[in-house]
Design brief:
heterodimer; A: 300 residues; alpha/beta; Rossmann fold; Alpha-Beta Plaits; 2 domains; six-stranded mixed β-sheet; four-stranded antiparallel β-sheet; B: 10 helices; ATP binding (chain A); AAA+_ATPase (chain A); ABC transporter ATP-binding protein (chain A); ABC_transporter-like_ATP-bd (chain A); P-loop_NTPase (chain A)
Chain lengths: 300, 275
C-alpha cells in the first residue's frame, strides 16, 4: 500500500501555504518532515487526513482517492498536537471510543503500554505532563493499527529516557506491523537516528528528499584561520554554524573542488571534516536565508 | 451512518448523561414549585409549561455541548474517521437536537400520565407543538453555527436569527397554544414547521460538506455567503423597522448601522489614514 500525494495545493486566508506538494510514502517506512516554523507542516498533515480540504491535487491510497473513499479512513491515524480531544477523556474511555472507530484496535498492546509507562488509566489525559501527553498520543496512534501514523513533533517534551523508549516503540511497531510513520519534527538530531529519509518542506513544496548518506555534495568543516578577520569565501560559499575566536564551523551546501583547494591553502592553520547530520543538510538548504540574516546582523 | 451515531454518542456520553440528569432535576424543580404555588402537582397548563421549559433548557444545554465540540477539537478528529462530514452532522442532529426533544417530551408525558392521567392528550398536544418549535429553532441555530466560525459570533448570530424569525413570522408556541387550534389546524401547522425545519436542515446538510477546519475562525466560513449574510442582516432589520413606528430615516438608520457592523466583521476591511 502506498500513500500518494499529487500536486497538493492549499491556500489559507489568501496565503499559499502548500504549493504542488508531491511525495509518496511506502509501507514500513519512517519518514521525517522538516521545515522552518510556519512552513506548512501541520497544514500538510491536516490536508492529508482530510481535516482541511486541498484546493487542488489528489491524495491516494494506491489507486483509491483517500479523501472520497471514507471506508479507508481508518488506515490513517492523526491527531492535532498538543491540543486534541484525547485530553478530555481517561485512557479507559479512549480505548472504548477507539475500539469503535478502528476495527483492528489493539486493546492488549494499548493496556500493556499504559502499564509500561506508568500512565494512570483512570485519570484524564489533561492531568498528564506535556511529555506524557505526547507519549500517550503515540501509544494511541500505534494501538489504532492504522497503516499510516502521522506524528507532529512526537518527541517534544519527552525526557531522554522516555525518548529512547518511544523511539524503540516506533521502530518496533514499524518492524512488526509494517506501519508507515511520517514524523514532523524540529529535532533533526533525533530524526537522524530514526528515519529512513527526510522530506524538506520549503516555500510550500517538498524542496528535497534526502537520506544522509546520499548527500555527498554537502560537507561540514571546522577550520582555524590565520588572518585577523574570517575569510569572506567561507561566508559566501557556506553557512557559518559556530564562530569562536579564529575557529569556524561551516557547512557547504554545494561543496566542490575549488572550495577544497581554498581550504587546503595557507590561510588556515588546520581544517577538519566533520560528520554531517540532518541538521547540517537543513542549514545548507536554507543557506541563502542564513547568509542574508548574517549580513543583516553584521550591518546592525 | 449507524457507526457515526455510535461513535459520536460514545464520545458525548458523559455530556448527554449530564443533560439527562439536568432534565430530571429541572422537572423536579418545576413540579415542586408548581406544587407549592398552587397546591396541585400538575394540570393542563402546567403540562405545556413544563414541556416548553424543559425543552428550552435541554436544547440550551445541548447547544453548549455542540459548541464544546469545537473547543475540544472533536470535529477535527471526527472528519478523519470512517464517516463523512454529513454523517457527523446527522449524528449531531440525532444526539443534540432530536434526543433532547424526545427526552423532554417523554419526561413530560410520563409525569402527566402519572399525576394527571386525564390530561395526557393535552400534554401530548403541547409536546408536539413545543417539540416542533424546538426542532425549528435548533435547525436555524445549527445552520447559523455552521456558517459562522467564532463561538461568540455563532451565539450572537443565532440569537439574532431567532429574534428576526419570531418577529417576522409572528409565531411562537405560546401563541399557538393560546389560540386553541383544532387538531386539523394543529397538524397543518406542525407539518409546516417541520417542513421549514427540514429545509433548514437540508441546507446545513449541503453546506457541511464545504466547510473545512481551516475556516474555523472566519466570521463567515463560506466565501460565497459573505455578501448574502450582510444583505440578510440589512433586509431583515429593515423589515423589523418597517413594522415599527417612526420616520423613514429612523427606519433606515438601524439596519444601516447593523449591516455596516456585520460588513466590518465579515470582510475585515483595513482602515488606515496613511497614504
Amino acid at each position: 500500500m502506498t500513500l500518494i500525494l499529487e500536486n497538493i495545493s492549499k491556500k489559507i486566508q489568501h496565503q499559499q501555504v502548500l504549493k504542488n506538494v508531491c511525495f509518496e510514502l511506502n509501507e514500513g517506512e519512517i519518514v521525517g518532515l522538516v521545515g522552518r516554523n510556519g512552513a506548512g507542516k501541520t497544514t500538510l498533515f491536516r490536508t492529508i487526513v482530510g481535516e482541511m480540504k486541498a484546493d487542488f491535487g489528489r491524495i491516494g491510497l494506491d489507486d483509491q482517492d483517500y479523501v472520497r473513499t471514507i471506508s479507508v479512513h481508518d488506515q490513517l491515524f492523526y491527531v492535532d498536537m498538543p491540543e486534541n480531544w484525547l485530553a478530555h477523556y481517561t485512557p479507559n474511555k479512549i480505548k472504548s471510543i477507539l475500539s469503535l472507530s478502528y476495527k483492528d484496535f489493539y486493546s492488549d498492546w494499548y493496556d500493556e503500554r499504559i502499564k509500561q509507562f506508568n500512565l494512570n488509566s483512570k485519570k484524564r489525559v489533561q492531568t498528564y505532563s506535556k511529555g506524557m501527553r505526547a507519549l500517550f498520543t503515540i501509544i494511541v496512534g500505534f494501538a489504532s493499527r492504522a497503516r499510516y501514523v502521522l506524528l507532529d513533533e512526537p518527541l517534544d517534551g519527552l525526557d531522554v529516557l522516555i525518548r529512547d523508549q518511544v523511539k524503540q516503540l516506533i521502530i518496533d511497531r514499524v518492524n512488526k506491523n509494517n506501519t508507515t510513520v511520517l514524523i514532523a519534527s524540529h529535532n533533526l538530531i533525533e530524526l537522524d537516528t530514526l528515519v529512513d529519509r527526510i522530506l524538506l518542506l520549503k516555500d510550500g513544496s517538498i524542496n528535497m528528499t534526502f537520506a544522509i548518506e546520499n548527500n555527498n555534495n554537502i560537507k561540514k568543516y571546522q577550520v582555524a584561520y590565520d588572518n585577523d578577520e574570517m575569510l569572506a569565501f567561507l561566508r559566501d560559499n557556506g553557512t557559518i554554524i559556530a564562530h569562536v575566536g579564529h575557529i569556524v564551523t561551516v557547512v557547504f551546501s554545494d561543496f566542490d573542488e575549488s572550495i577544497g583547494i581554498k581550504l587546503a591553502g595557507s590561510d588556515f592553520k588546520f581544517i577538519e571534516e566533520l560528520p554531517i547530520g540532518s541538521e547540517d543538510i537543513f542549514r545548507a538548504s536554507f543557506a541563502s536565508e542564513a547568509h542574508a540574516w548574517q549580513k543583516e546582523l553584521e550591518g546592525e | 451512518m449507524l457507526r457515526a451515531i455510535k461513535i459520536y454518542g460514545k464520545m458525548k456520553a458523559p455530556q448527554l448523561i449530564l443533560i439527562a440528569f439536568l432534565g430530571i432535576a429541572v422537572s423536579a424543580i418545576i413540579i415542586g414549585t408548581n406544587f407549592i404555588d398552587s397546591g396541585t402537582a400538575s394540570g393542563g397548563d402546567n403540562a405545556s409549561e413544563l414541556s416548553s421549559q424543559l425543552m428550552i433548557i435541554l436544547q440550551f444545554a445541548a447547544l453548549l455541548s455542540f459548541y464544546n465540540d469545537k473547543t475540544r477539537h472533536l470535529d477535527a478528529w471526527l472528519v478523519t474517521q470512517n464517516m463523512s462530514r454529513r454523517q457527523i452532522l446527522l449524528s449531531k442532529i440525532f444526539w443534540l437536537i432530536i434526543a433532547p426533544i424526545a427526552f423532554a417530551a417523554m419526561i413530560d408525558l410520563l409525569l402527566t400520565i402519572t399525576m394527571q392521567p386525564s390530561d395526557w392528550t393535552h400534554a401530548l398536544r403541547s409536546n408536539i407543538i413545543n417539540g416542533t418549535f424546538s426542532l425549528l429553532f435548533a435547525s436555524l441555530v445549527l445552520g447559523v453555527s455552521l456558517v459562522i466560525g467564532p463561538i461568540w459570533q455563532k451565539v450572537a448570530g443565532s440569537i439574532y436569527l431567532i429574534v428576526v424569525f419570531e418577529a417576522i413570522t409572528h409565531t411562537s408556541a405560546d401563541q399557538m397554544l393560546s389560540r386553541q387550534y383544532f387538531i386539523n389546524d394543529l397538524m397543518t401547522s406542525v407539518l409546516a414547521i417541520i417542513g421549514i425545519s427540514l429545509v433548514a436542515l437540508t441546507i446545513s446538510y449541503y453546506l457541511v460538506e464545504h466547510v473545512g477546519v481551516d475556516t474555523e475562525d472566519e466570521p463567515v466560513r463560506l466565501t460565497y455567503l459573505k455578501w448574502p449574510v450582510v444583505i440578510f442582516v440589512f433586509l431583515s432589520m429593515l423589515v423589523l423597522q418597517l413594522n415599527a413606528g417612526g420616520g423613514m430615516l429612523d427606519k433606515l438608520l438601524f439596519p444601516a448601522i447593523l449591516s455596516i457592523t456585520t460588513f466590518i466583521f465579515v470582510f475585515k476591511p483595513k482602515l488606515s489614514w496613511e497614504r
